[in-house]
Amino acid sequence: MKRLHLILILLLISIHAFATDVQFRFLPGFPFLLDTQLKSYNCTAVSFDVVPITVRERDSVFFGAGFSLMPFTAPGIESFSAYDFNISAGYEFMVSDRFSVDVEALFGLWTSGEVKGTESSKKIGGSSGLSWGARASAYYNLFPELSLGGFAEFRDFPNGSGSFLKKVSVGAALRYNFTRGLSTTSAIDVVSSDLSSVFTEPLFPVFYSRYEDHPFGSITFVNEEKNDITDVTVSVMIERYMSNPSVCAKFDRVKMGQEFTAELTAFLDEAILSSLTPNTVYADITVEYKSLSKKLSRTVSVDLQTLSRNNMTWDDDRRAAAFVSSRDGSANFFANYVRSVVAPELRSNVPENIQLAAAIFSALKVYGINYVLDPASSFTDMRGSAQVDFLQFPYQTLLYHGGDCDDLSILNCALLEVLGIDAAFITCPGHIFIAFDSGVSVENAASVGRCIVQDGKVWIPLEITLCQDTFELARGFGYREWEKYPEERVLIPLRSAWEEYRTVGIADSNPKLDMPSKEAILREFRANRP
Question: What is the CB-side half-sphere exposure of residue 193 using CA atoms within 13 A?
Answer without folding.
Answer: 0
